[in-house]
Predict the structure.
Amino acid sequence: MPDLSVEQFQSLSQQIYQKLGLHFDEKKIYFLKTRVAKRMTALGLDDPREYMFKLSYADPHGEEMQALANLVTTNETYMFREYDQLQAFANYCLPEVLSAKQARGERTLRIWSAGCSSGEEPYTLAMIVQDVFPQAQSWDCEIVATDIDQNMLRRVAAARYGARSVADVPDEYRAKYLIEDGDEWIVRRRTTALVKARHLNLSDRMAMRAMRGFDFIFCRNVLIYFDDLSRKAVVDHFYNALNPGSYVFLGHSESVGRVNTAFKLKRFESHLVYVKE
Amino acid sequence: MVAPCHELSGRNLEGSPKDGDMSSLAEYVQQLDGSDEAERIYAAEDIGYRNAPDGVPPLLKRLSQEPSRAVRDAIFQALIRIDADASIEGSIWLLESEDPQIRNQAVDVLRHKGARSVPFLDRAMRNGDRDVRKFVLDVLSGVQAGGVDEIYLAALADHDENVVITAVENLGRIRATQFRRRIEELLLAGLHPMLVGACLEALAGIGDESSLAAIRGRFPDLGVVPDFFLVSCVKAFGALGAAAEFVEMTGLLAVRGHHLRPAILGALVAIRQRKPTEIHGEQLLPPLQAVVDNGDPPLCRYQAVRVLGFLACHDEVHSFLVSCLSSPERLVRLGAVESLRESPRPGLQDILVACAAKETDEEVLQALGC
């Protein structure tokens, strides 16, 4: 295995953090080294310095960084993924938005799960909304789940998940919102009722312009597969799709601040979130 | 900053071959001044997708008065999409802005334009003020293009030291070996510490034997070189040196501060990787053992253990590495597994299997092959 020196590891983890927002500390040195070794083998390189040079200065379109990103990120989706973000949503952002709406006499809540894949994220959000805000049933409340892949949308509609998808669901949520059915778990009807699945290509700018009036947008671990310019265009659309005072959540590997300067960074205790002012 | 009048007049909006298209452009331009933020964003986006050079002046004009960051972002995206000299010229002009966000975004646009922006950058390098000249180099640091040597020659001769330093940094990064001699000269003559540091870093990337001699000429005794320079010196020695430098670096471990050890160990690893057959390292075990045993930071200890990998066939080193498998520090154990695997000996697999039975750290287990 080509041996990445400590200095190269530090330089690489800094670059990955700057470009992808993923943090690799010394606990992940072996993980990162093995992934880099795979990329070097694929490229026919045996000197880590050559790989570092390629990544840093000979990758104008970010293709190599993307290839590395594919190796160091997990495509797996499951309920209650990136729990910290969900805590910020449940404990701070959602109550704040709801009380502002109540003060204005509004009774609507609209959340968009963009690039929802097989539906674990929108159903997670639906469970949280029902738990934090039991009155959701009497409000005009919807979670719009969009994906480009019709097969994924069919899985959203089916709302059946294997054990891996629900492994991180807290027990109290599992009891309230899921039903065990053999090896699978089914999302209860009153939770699925909040979720509306729709086909949408995030790169279709005209379709994106129709998406308006949201209080939250979740688009986690989707934009890492977009090139720089397309990613910026999508986040610009998110900005327009949100109401003032609303929040956008991207994945840990994607920073809003690097893509769009219009959102304001807001801190809730240890959580950092992006809001449209 | 005052916009050139001819650029901002919205000229030719009516004079296109396709009247229908142009009226649309005129509509978008009108929407750029609308009161609704979203409408202005869409207008900027549509102008960008039209890829019409005539859309550039109105975009620039709007930029100068636009209060919304979101709209400004959209305008820059449009400038990137418009594949015309007008958007490059406009972005060069924006480098003079007082607003750092606008300057940074202009740098980003020019980087996206790549080689096409080079002639314009060349002109800006000759005519711009020192800030613009520095920004030109910032653009070039993200551009892979030919025809930039003239710009760098001008930058290296610039009377502003910041411009020279930035040029040297870029040249090291892009491995512009044709500038090696000039950088060696700057190293020997340079007074500004940042310039000297930049030259050392650049030569670590593009240097050769003569560069090593130049570094020795500037810093004859590494034992007394100030810390600020030593890290870069050691890096350059690691990149350019051989057996003699390996011995010299090993000696530094004992006489320089603990905080310099990562750099010194990095240099040892680098020389070892480049000159595996020239390095013997018999005297290496005691100083590296001291690093591992003396409570240095975990990554430093890991590095020390990894340096020993090529000596793992020696009995003493092998025994030491095996003892490291029981270290309470996971990185020491990880380094020991990797180093032992570098020079496998009979019985090693049994040792590693026994180690795996006790190991709990996920990464170490992976390295052990579990």
